[in-house]
Amino acid sequence: MPNEPIIKTFIDDEEKAIIEAIEHEGYETGKNTLTPARLETLKSAARAAINEERVKISLRIQKSDLNRLKAKALQEGIPYQTLINSILHKAVTS
Question: Is residue 27 assigned to a domain?
């Protein structure tokens, strides 16, 4: 039996559903287009993060996660590092 990735033990049902939807054969990346409202939300989060002093960090993540982040950022028309920063900012401020 092949080893299961450890990360699967840490994901919740919502995350599982997202992963299954992405890995499904019929998944189309063009369906989740960037709306003006979503773009404004991301810009606002990015502006809030930009206005503070920045600290450079090093972070190791799974290659597949990085590829998905880059694809999502490309869909949304922003740099992938900005998307990561936005996700982290939202996670720690909500």
Answer: no
